[in-house]
Amino acid sequence: MRRPNLPLFLAVAALAGGIIGFTIYAKENESPFAFGMSRPGVEFSEMDDDSQRNQGRRFACTPIDGGYRVCEVSTDGPPGKMRVAVDDAGRVIVLRMTISETSPRVADLTDKVRKQWNGVDGDGVLRTAATQQVIDWRTNDGRWSARMRLRSLSLGMEEMSIADERALGRLIQGDEKALPTAIELVRRGLISDTLLTAAERRAPGTMLRAADARSTGARQRSTAMRSLPRCAGNLVQVQDYTAPDELLGQHAAIVQQAVATAYGGRRIVVAEQPYLVDAADVGEAIAITPPTDDETGERVAFAITFTARADSSTAAVDRGERPRRCRAVADVIVARIDTSLRKVTEVRGGELEPDGWVTRARTLHFFVGDERRPLIASYESTYADSSWVGEVAWQATLTSDSLVALRRNPISFRKTSGGRTVGGRLLPDVGSGAPAGDADPFAGRIVIVLPLEDSDGSAPYPVMLPSAVNGTANGWTLLAMF
């Protein structure tokens, strides 16, 4: 009888054991919740190859912090878009898919996926709100989760997501260097902002430091912009003008006195638009906010935008140029008045936004009921770097004496980089409460972005904003987050 080749037998056994072990390891590290061949835990390259093989297209990927990537692809069956987060090891940790079709086919598919996921060792709970149905699944060990959002029980799902909860937990529980990655995944709608809240609860200040890390370099650009001089005026000879009495109303005389003091004897006239002119009627086009007075009538304030300078700088942006020489500013002027004589006794002026390249004032009024008599100003500023251009709409609270910003809130923003535009209206998370006093109420807080109307219809998403620069919210640090 021939003896078996023991070394060969052991090698085969070891190989078999290795294959079995690897299979078990792979299954343990792949989500039991799947959509076709797609699931968290797998190598992204496998999903990418599968998409190419079945749909004739690959995922388009964008690198983010920490070596992670966000990848997306349009899908055919059913029609929609699949997005995934890929970690620094090349594994999928989150999958999210939106479905654009409503049909019996999608309803049937939804039913099949629900039955498959209900068979996983975990709990599924139907939560019904006024306008939506949401089903959540989670394995008993908490490692894997899935969610399905239904249009209705009869129309099928509109969105589904699957996540590796352990991998997401490592993002917020490990080194703070990983937190900017979590912030970016939240911003892109791939994970919930509850993870950010949990990280902040565990270690107060953590998320603010992470947000600041994402705005590295923004403070230097802010300082560099402040160092640029004001742009010179685009002067023209103004003819056929009239007095600005109708434009300036009851405060016309006071405004003209204040303008003469602030701008070296110049005055405002109106031709086809308002102009700030000298004694020889040479001047430049401006826009002026309606003059406003405080409760006592002892102060009158207005803001001036140098429109020709702003238009010239904006045209330079459109040509792809970036700020190197000067800033197109907007000024706030406050005149203190002797009410008995209706005469200006003091004039104070300052720039609305010293960090912006181009600033345009929109509205200005005194805040009623505050003994400090602050001014509320709304304006828009443009910021630009070598690779992007951004605009922020602001609402600022200014002291009427020194014109220092007590508070400055970003209301909306837009940023264009590489042909792609992002942005929207920012809303604070009112549930968390604003800091007391005059502190910047946005820094270190989660805000909700309501996307621009032309931003392809994406859903609102939360963002943690970085801390202030020079005591107030800053356009450079804000735009660095996007």
Rg is: 30 Å
Amino- and carboxy-terminal Cα gap: 75 Å
Low-pLDDT runs: 1-26, 429-439
Estimated share of beta-strand residues: 25-35%
Helical proportion? 25-40%
Overall mean pLDDT score?
82
Count up the helices: 12
Quick one: overall form?
elongated
User: Largest sheet, if any?
Assistant: 8 strands, antiparallel
> Order of strands across the biggest sheet?
1-2-3-4-8-7-6-5
Total strand count, please?
24
Can you put this structure into words, describing what you see?
The chain has 482 residues and is of the alpha+beta class. 27% of the residues lie in helices and 34% in strands. It contains twelve helices and 24 strands. The strands form four sheets. Strands 1-2-3-4-8-7-6-5 form an eight-stranded antiparallel sheet. Helix 4 (165-173) crosses helix 6. The longest helix is centred in the first third of the chain and has 23 residues, at 6-28. 38% of the residues are buried. The model is unreliable at 1-26 and 429-439 (pLDDT under 50).
Produce a short descriptive summary:
This protein has helices spanning 6-28, 44-55, 104-118, 165-173, 179-187, 194-202, 206-214, 218-226, 245-248, 252-262, 307-318, 475-480; strands at 60-63, 69-75, 80-86, 92-99, 122-128, 133-139, 144-152, 156-164, 236-237, 267-270, 274-277, 282-285, 287-288, 292-293, 299-305, 330-338, 343-351, 358-366, 375-384, 388-398, 405-417, 420-428, 446-451, 461-464.
